[in-house]
From TrEMBL:
It comes from Steroidobacter denitrificans. This is NnrU domain-containing protein. It is a multi-pass membrane protein. One of its GO terms (cellular component) is membrane. It comes from the Bacteria. It is found in: Membrane. Residues 4-226 form the NnrU domain. The chain crosses the membrane at residues 36-56, 68-90, 139-159, 202-223. Its main location: membrane. GO terms for molecular function: 9,15,9'-tri-cis-zeta-carotene isomerase activity.
Amino acid sequence: MSSLIAASVFFLAIHFGVSGTRLRDVLTSRMGEGPYRGMFSLASIVGIVWMSMAYSRAPAVELWGQLIGLRPLASALVLLAFLFAGIGLVTPSPTGIGMESRLTQGGEIIRGMVRITRHPFLWGVALWALAHTIVNGDLPSLIFFGSLLLLALGGTLSIDAKRRRHCGEAWERFVRETSNVPFAAIVAGRNRLVPALREIGLWRPLIAIIAYALLLVLHGRLFGMPLV
């Protein structure tokens, strides 16, 4: 268990203690954007691999126990997570790595999933982690998936803060028409759902649903228990 805790602390520390902070600004000014991203990516890979290996070896310590009855709800959350993350990955957004320059496109960049949330991939990760945290009900799962949930939600705030520092008024204009929390800008009347759905189209959700269906079939073989 100590290895899982150490891995989780390491993984969260490099993101919340470096990425999105002023320390990152100092490091990139000294070593350059490319070398920094390379080193940070390597550290992130080490962190997630370490976490995964430690999680697979951690002793089972039951907390609230497996909530079998909530598996259908968890499956629905995971499907929603796949839609958010999958569509988000193929939707250009100034919140993506190295995409700050897209802010110069003005309102043209606010299309599709970006109308719903400016952080679709991270919200997808958050929903996926939340589903697994609730259903598994053991301490290793709480540490592993809870850390990823914390990282995803905190990551949205970290990215917003970094863009605000670096992009100024261009970022503020983008924020005025979008929202971090899904659908908040639409509910507030700052954006519209119908254009978002039309711009998302059919092929993006279809790919996400196919990926989810494959997981549904293979989950038991890969992770030792069915998804539902």
